[in-house]
Amino acid sequence: MSFQISIGGFIAVYIFMVTAFAGWVIIGRVPAILHTPLMSGSNFVHGIVVVGGIFTLLNASTPLEQAIGFVAVLLGAGNVAGGFAVTQRMLAMFQTSGHAAHATKHPKHAKHPKRAAPAAVKSISPKKT
Amino acid sequence: MVITISQLIIGSVDLIAAFLLMFGLWRMASPVTAPSGILVAGVGMLVAVVASFLYVFTVDAAAKPHLPLNLALAAAALIIGAGAAWWSGRKVAITAMPQAVALFNGMGGGAAGAIAAVELFGHQTHGAAQLIVTLLGASIGSISLSGSIIAWAKLDALLKKPLHVPGLQIFNGVVLLLCVMVGGYIAFTTVGGAAPIVAMPQLIEIFFAIALLYGILMTLPIGGADMPVVISVYNAFTGLAVGLEGFVLQNPALMIAGMLVGAAGLLLTLLMAKAMNRSVAKILFASFGPGKKRKQGAIKGSLKPVQASDAGIFMRYAKSVIIVPGYGLAVSQGQGKLYDFVKLLQAAGVSVKFAIHPVAGRMPGQMDVLLAEAGVPYDLIVQLADVNEEFKDADVALIIGANDVVNPEARTDKTSPIYGMPILNADQAKKCYVVKRGDGKGYAGIVNPLFYAENTFMVYGDAAAVCVSMTEAVRGMGAPAAAA
Q1: Is residue A5 a contact partner of residue B251, using CB atoms and an 8 Å limit?
Q2: Cystine design at B397: which of A11, B41, B167, B429 (Cβ 3.0–4.6 Å)?
Q3: How does pLDDT run across B450-459, given as a tens digit for each residue?
Q4: pLDDT digits (tens, 9 = 90+) for A87-129
Q5: CB–CB of B378 and A85 under 8 A?
Q6: Per-residue pLDDT tens for B159-204?
Q7: Burial class (CB in 10 A: 0-12, 13-18, 19+), A75
Q8: Do A38 and B70 form a contact (C-beta atoms < 8 A)?
Q9: Residue B404 among the catalytic residues
Q10: What domain range is B152 assigned to?
Q11: Does B239 have pLDDT greater than 60?
Q12: Which residues of B are less than 8 Å from A109 in CB distance?
């Protein structure tokens, strides 16, 4: 029994097609207020290239391949770590009026549970929820 | 046996990772769930990276003797790359976020290009389809790398002016064509088994050099105002390159994550272009701003300066105030001071909202992040489509550090470079206060007639300092009343 993954040309096209569609739908839901974290978040997601870099470097058999493979892992790791760091930092900043820090200043919002979706946040995607 | 087990583990972990990355992005749909979304995606990424070290059990026979060194190199690269990027990502100012994203994006493109380079130099690709996909990924990744670096340099103000050379677009077209031709020649000679006129390693080097050059040339003529679109395009490019290299490496997790970002980048690019009412092709292939000389019609009216304290007190007695923040606010680091003023107004019963233009700041949504950083709750932040009808009922529009996004010329003057761009209708408010450093022009390099309008008053000064003066003025008048 083998678990070797083998993806032929047509299967690849199918995977790309379905994923592109999924990506379009997933990203279309994101409101404009989150577009900067979204951009850096999707930037973080393609950092998975570091996995390919590690594979390539481990399979390197000449100094040239080792050098380029090293660069691939170095850059890929930078993409992952940097993308995550900035995205996480930005998202941690978003708070509602219902948040404890502001509750006393805005009594009318204080009653709302923290999870109430604010009316102001609307998706500008064609698909409205 | 060990090979089978490691393949099983890697396959399963990558499957989980692909799911977590998608699910993480899914949770980005609301500011409430988004922070956990990035953590979910982070877990997926972490397990995928850890599991990738199981590839040691499946390496080629040729690479076996080099395994200890390769492993050490991989660990070192991972620690150095991740450590440096983590440190700079933690430290970078929110105002500098577009540059940071451009840089990290370029790294991803470079990584995809480097993987392709190893495949090409090592002749590890099998068959024409894989070779062509490798070449495609190599060129797209390289363009993304060099293009992102130029975008970073422009946003970081290392490169000040967009490059305007007559005929550059045609030259770029030739360079791109050359890139396709060299790539095609590599594929043709490799598949056909013919001897190339130039030795293959040199040919591959030439191919990468042309692709990198194209990325530079393509980005140089694009103006700073269009950089967010460019970053988004390169984000999509890197995603595409990663997806293509995922196919070459037969790794579905890379294919899925890469293509996901490819689609995301494309959608974001189109949304942004729509917000600026310009076609993506025009942004990428035609230059904008000071390159074109245009005579602006004479502007009626005059600039009417007022004191910050007067503006502050007027707003204290208004019913509703809509604030239009722009990049100038971020430059002066005045968001926190502005929010202090807003809290005073709210305490006095004034209804206050922040109206955000889709391209406020240097990147879509950047102004939202900057306000969030200052502690402004996101339910006070309203996007253009939802707020534009409200300006005509607002007593005051406070425009602070913004310019082009409230320029009514975009609605009326067909010859204006920003004609057709959706703008915030601040000019419809009963009164406009414009906080500005001086009479300078906006990013698009044009004069804003709104500033000369009858109901517009200019408050000159640094945005942060003006916010402090307004706050002090309102506090100062409140104190005697409280004492009495």
Answers
A1: yes
A2: B429
A3: 888 888 999 9
A4: 999 999 888 876 544 433 444 443 444 444 444 444 444 443 3
A5: no
A6: 777 777 777 888 888 999 999 999 998 888 888 777 777 777 889 9
A7: buried
A8: no
A9: yes
A10: 96-292
A11: yes
A12: 377, 379
Chain A residue with minimum CA distance to B120 = A65
Spell out the residues 6+ positions from residue B353 whose beta carbon is closer than 8 angstroms to its own. B320, B321, B322, B323, B380, B381, B382, B387, B390
Contact A124 B34 (CB under 8 A): no
Facing A36 at nearest CB: one of B41, B60, B368:
B368
The most distant pair of C-alpha atoms in chain A lies apart, rounded to whole Å, by 68
**CA A61 remoteness from chain centre:** 33
Residue B260 CB burial class (10 angstroms; 0-12, 13-18, ≥19) = buried
Q: Which domain holds residue A80?
A: 9-93
Same domain, B272 and B168: yes
Interface contact B261, partner A, CB < 8 A: yes
DSSP string, B329-394: HHHTT-HHHHHHHHHHHHHTT-EEEEEE-TT-TTSTTHHHHHHHHTT--GGGEEEHHHHGGGGGG-
B323 has which bridge partners?
B354, B398
Nearest residue in chain B measured CA to CA from A66? B70
Same domain, B221 and B141: yes
Q: State residue A111's pLDDT score.
A: 40
Q: Which residues pair with B354 in a beta bridge?
A: B323, B381
Q: Is there a contact between A23 and B85 if contact means CB atoms under 8 Å apart?
A: no
Among A59, A102, A106, A127, pick the best mutation site for testing chain B contact (most B Cβ within 10 A).
Answer: A59
User: How far does CA B143 lie from the centroid of its chain?
Assistant: 17
Q: How many CB atoms lie within 10 A of CB B96?
A: 18
Q: Do A48 and B118 touch (CB under 8 A)?
A: no
Residue A115 lies in a domain: no
A37 min Cα distance to partner chain B (Å): 8
Query: B77: nearest CA in chain A?
Result: A74
> Same domain for B194 and B287?
yes
> What average pLDDT does the segment B197-220 reach?
90
pLDDT for B38-63, tens place per residue? 999 999 999 999 999 999 888 888 88
Does the beta carbon of B270 lie under 8 angstroms from any beta carbon of chain A? no
* A25, part of any domain: yes
Q: Each residue of B59-116: pLDDT tens digit?
A: 888 888 889 999 999 999 999 999 999 999 999 988 888 889 999 999 999 999 999 9
Interface of B with A in 444-483 (CB under 8 A): none
Count of structural domains, chain A: 1
CB B326 within 8 A of CB B402: yes
Length of chain B: 484
Structure tokens at B11: 């396959």
Which among A58, A104, A106, A122 is the top mutation candidate for probing chain B, defined by the most B β-carbons within 10 Å of its own β-carbon?
A: A58
Given the residues B14, B226, B368, B404, select the one marked as catalytic.
B404
